Amino acid sequence: MHRYYQGDILNTRVVGGIYEEQCVSYLKKHDFQIVAQNYRCKIGEIDIIAVKNNILRFIEVKYRKNESFGFPIEAVNKRKQNKMMKAASWFLSENKQYENMQCSFDIISITEHDIEYVFNCFGAI
Hints:
Helices cover 28% and strands 35% of the residues. The protein has 2 helices and 7 strands; from the N terminus they run ββαβββαββ. The protein has a 5-stranded mixed sheet, with helices on both faces.
């Protein structure tokens, strides 16, 4: 059995990685400069960090095969938002070149048929 599969189901981390790569391609096509992918620190993680129009964007990628468990954007709850904001503050403390940039917390919502980029969804640091 292929190591990416658990039974008949593709490992969710592998699926997440596939869709994150799709998002990176989408962002690059739309003139985003990718700063980091899968940024991790002791506080949390951020899927993609990018710059466009002099705004540093902390981007969460959410995929749902269908809406039976809700829309992808609904999965970014208050707890996840708080973790992202703390991880973003950590990133800024490590990367002083970005500390004076305007920041936004964005979500890329992916379903089987659609990619939606939602700008400035929550919070500020």
